[in-house]
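STRUCTURE:
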């Protein structure tokens, strides 16, 4: 059960957490589903009274995404066990201006290993510090710095983007 303070802190973190979910999944619809699953888990299972709400929520989100990736792998390996219904509706981004640029960046992000993409998303998109990202992902700060450097290098090489450093 969450305290009132924890609920308020969780509500305040929803915007950043949503961006994180979308960056993990690669599209808004799946990102919103991941956000919902994350919030459901946090509300259902609660969190320790002394837990940092944002860090806890990001970890729950990361773990929910890992669970989803594993489930997708099982569905691909054993398609006969999965229903044939698929959701192939176009997203809102496909109709927006700058689709080619978005597609290029998205494709380049998809090529980045997940651990690099997570670190880059937390720091460059969500505005977390290296220390906060390291705490959320449970790795040393130097590892975060290295992952971000490699991810940025990849984006520069594949999209012609300038490195923000």
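SEQUENCE:
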């Amino acid at each position: 059960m969450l305290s009132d303070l924890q609920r308020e802190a969780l509500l305040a973190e929803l915007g950043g957490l949503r961006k994180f979910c979308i960056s993990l999944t690669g599209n808004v619809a799946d990102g919103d589903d991941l956000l919902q699953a994350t919030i459901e888990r946090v509300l259902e299972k609660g969190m320790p009274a002394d837990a940092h709400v944002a860090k806890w929520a990001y970890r729950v989100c990361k773990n929910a995404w890992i669970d989803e990736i594993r489930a997708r792998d099982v569905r691909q390996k054993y398609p006969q066990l999965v229903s044939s219904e698929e959701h192939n509706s176009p997203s809102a981004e496909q109709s927006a201006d700058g689709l080619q640029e978005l597609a290029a960046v998205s494709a380049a992000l998809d090529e980045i290993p997940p651990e690099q993409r997570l670190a880059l998303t937390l720091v460059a998109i969500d505005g977390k510090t290296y220390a906060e990202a390291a705490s959320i992902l449970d790795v040393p700060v130097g590892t975060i710095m290295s992952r971000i450097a490699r991810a940025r290098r990849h984006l520069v090489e594949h999209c012609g983007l300038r490195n923000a450093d």
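REMARK: The two ends are 42 Å apart (CA to CA).
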